[in-house]
Design brief:
Structural class of chain A: alpha/beta
Number of domains of chain A: 1
Oligomer: heterodimer
Shape of chain A: globular
Shape of chain B: globular
CATH topology of chain A: TIM Barrel
Structural class of chain B: alpha/beta
CATH class of the largest domain in chain B: Alpha Beta
CATH architecture of the largest domain in chain B: 3-Layer(aba) Sandwich
Strand content of chain B: 15-25%
CATH class of chain A: Alpha Beta
Chain lengths: 272, 395
């Protein structure tokens, strides 16, 4: 399949380069804030954005992303509104890939087919579903791919080589490596076990590789991108732009400026 | 031996499945494999049977409640799980899974609890089998089921009080699952017949002793088969345990009673079949109370154990097959059931079990002359503060 994300990852891979993908909780600070943040990340050279769909029961998330989802839901964010916002972002002509990071239920509630159509029409490129495993993913995957959406599965340090191969085979665009055991957000010290896990995946997988969970600075980005094509920064990113937003009288540009600043710091880690 | 995919069916009809974070898959696969192996292991079965008989106090009686039967015009029999050690059916599953965890070489147990009965049962099994035990309990439930919180601590468990969300059972499960994602070498001892495969099958397996015994006891004490079984349904472990003894007896009606709260029409309830629709929560596809955006809705019940927005997937499948029927009982009806059983039979039932009794009382005329087994899944000592508070407010 071909879409903005697949094209991006293929070109990074063939150029021997890596990228940074910030995670943004959609509707945290309101959707107008999210829209400005996306524009700032596009201008700043983000390789991709993971756009988090808030869910009432995020079982794989730590306190920071739980709180962000709750703020967003309390503000009245709906999936339909998020997709409208993505559509508005695309009207500016941006080709920055957008991956929706959503628990299964909000998408399933529209029906996989309906959710895939709505996502594609808005200009979404991929689905990352943290409570979806390849064994359960056939219907989701077929609907996504029929609409040009890349289904992306996860691998963890606890995954066997067989499971890694299966997830890679079922994924398009990239394979998502959970860098360590645990929920999102806890500080990661990158040790040999994380790096050898990434090397183990790399050995058995042709697909571009993204790594996330607990990354927060350029030094870590530099370390993981020796093995991975994409470094995802989630909780640290959400927290930093939330704090800037609150400190900046809840002005969307306060969040957007901080997003651009933090992205540029993180991208220092890409310089070889 | 390692395995990289499940060996048994993960679904009940179209319901169930394993919608779990990949980090947990190795643990779920290991659990399924260990559970299947334990079922072939005579030594394991004998040890569990020994504990259930001499430690937990099985078999529990099937009691013919003649006084209540005369009053209602319905022949009422109670399966007395309230008489099991720790005061509820939950110990059947906790002992089974704790023994299984021990067999797997696990040293640390994580569990959630709503009413506190599963927490107490698990803390008990862990004390007995020398396992470290951490229980997650919502702050609202910790307050309304305080005696059980204290019991867990006295048994040596650490209780983590959960403040997130509505601070009830759903939120306790969220936190327990997060803790398991952080430590997949621990065993998550899930207390109801829900969650990702293989939990719904394992819990139903350990609870099916209720129905197996009840069927045998019925044959000993009565003729033929009962006309209906009645059990309350939160996640649904006591109900599936009873129903499983009679699934192949199509003449026996299976009636699950959900928490009607203030009434299904008010939105303040936990009646998933009449107020919900299929969706995915806590690892399984089942009936779920959710809004039009797929967000899980708040629930209400006077009973902490039934105050949960999803139902075990096997119940969803039994409903789809029209093998079981699911109905609801309001807070008020449940409280009437509690009082009626106390006065008529000298038994204080748990508020959860009071829903089955309350429904029976409200529907007695339609069941006139029939013979029914009601699962008295737990005892009501834990609820006396709640009852006293409601009486004060009402007077």
């Amino acid at each position: 399949m071909k879409n903005r994300l697949v094209t991006q990852m293929t070109s990074l891979r063939s150029a021997g380069q890596a990228g940074v993908a910030p995670y943004v909780t959609a509707g945290d600070g309101g959707l107008e804030t999210t829209l400005e943040v996306l524009r700032a990340l596009d201008s700043g050279g983000a390789a991709c954005v993971e756009l988090g769909i808030p869910f009432s029961d995020p079982i794989a998330d730590g306190p920071i992303l739980q709180a962000a989802a709750q703020r967003s839901l309390d503000g009245g964010t709906k999936l339909g509104g998020i997709l409208e916002m993505v559509k508005e972002f695309r009207q500016g002509g941006s080709e920055m890939p957008i991956a929706l990071f959503s628990y299964a239920n909000p998408l399933l509630h529209l029906g996989w087919e309906g959710a895939a159509r709505a996502s594609a029409e808005a200009g979404v490129d991929a689905w990352l579903i943290p409570d979806m495993i390849p064994e359960e993913g056939d219907e989701m995957s077929a609907a996504a791919q029929a609409h040009g959406i890349a289904p992306i599965f996860f691998v963890a340090p606890t995954s066997s080589d067989e499971r890694i191969a299966r997830a890679a085979n079922a994924s398009r665009g990239f394979l998502y490596a959970i860098g360590r055991v645990g929920v999102t957000g806890n500080a990661t010290t990158l040790d040999e076990s994380t790096l050898s896990f990434l090397a183990r995946i790399r050995a058995g997988c042709e697909l571009p590789l993204a790594v996330g969970f607990g990354l927060r600075d350029a030094t870590q980005i530099s370390a993981v991108t020796r093995h991975a094509d994409l470094a995802i920064v989630g909780s640290a990113f959400v927290q930093r732009i939330h704090e800037a937003f609150m400190a900046g009288n809840q002005a969307p540009h306060a969040a957007a400026n901080e997003a651009a600043l933090y992205l540029s710091e993180l991208m220092q880690g890409l310089k070889r | 031996m390692t395995t990289d995919t499940f060996k048994t069916a993960t679904r009940f009809g179209s319901f169930g499945g394993a919608f779990a974070p990949e980090t947990l898959m190795a643990a779920l696969l290991e659990l399924e494999q260990a559970w299947l192996a334990s079922r072939e292991d005579r030594g394991f079965s004998a040890e569990l049977a020994q504990l259930l008989e001499h430690y937990a106090g099985r078999r529990t009686p099937l009691y013919h409640a003649r006084g209540l039967s005369t009053e209602l015009g319905v022949d009422v029999w109670f399966k007395r799980e309230d008489l099991l050690h720790t005061g509820a059916h939950k110990l059947n599953n906790s002992l089974g899974q704790a023994l299984l965890a021990k067999r797997m070489g696990k040293q640390r147990i994580l569990a959630e609890t709503g009413a506190g009965q599963h927490g107490v049962a698990t803390a008990t099994a862990c004390a007995l089998l020398d396992l470290e035990c951490v229980i997650y309990m919502g702050a609202v439930d910790a307050a309304r089921q305080r005696p059980n919180l204290l019991r867990m601590e006295l048994l040596g468990a650490r209780v983590e009080v959960v403040e997130q969300g509505q601070a009830t059972l759903k939120d306790a499960i969220n936190e327990a699952m997060r803790a398991w994602v952080g430590d997949p070498t621990a065993h998550y001892l899930l207390g109801s017949a829900l969650g990702p495969h293989p939990f719904p099958s394992i819990v139903a397996h350990y609870q099916s002793i209720i129905g197996c015994e009840a069927r045998a006891q019925w044959q000993e004490q009565a003729e033929g088969l009962p006309d209906a079984l009645i059990a309350c349904v939160g996640g649904g472990s006591n109900a599936i345990g009873l129903f499983r003894g009679f699934l192949d007896d199509p003449a026996v009606r299976l009636i699950g009673v959900e928490a009607g709260g203030h009434g299904v029409e008010t939105g303040k309830h936990a009646a998933r079949f009449s107020g919900g629709s299929p969706g995915i929560l806590h690892g399984c596809y089942t009936y779920l109370l959710q809004d039009d955006d797929g967000q899980v809705l708040p629930t209400h019940s006077v009973s902490a154990g039934l105050d949960y927005p999803a139902v075990g997937p096997e119940h969803a499948a039994l409903a789809a097959l029209h093998r079981a029927e699911y109905t609801s009982c309001s807070d008020t009806e449940a409280l009437l059931g509690f009082e009626r059983l106390a006065r008529s039979e000298g038994i204080l039932p748990a508020l959860e079990s009071s829903h089955a009794i309350g429904w029976l009382i409200s529907n007695a005329s339609a069941l006139e002359g029939q013979r029914v087994i009601v699962n008295l899944s737990g005892r009501g000592d834990k609820d006396i503060d709640t009852i006293a508070r409601i009486r004060e407010q009402g007077s």
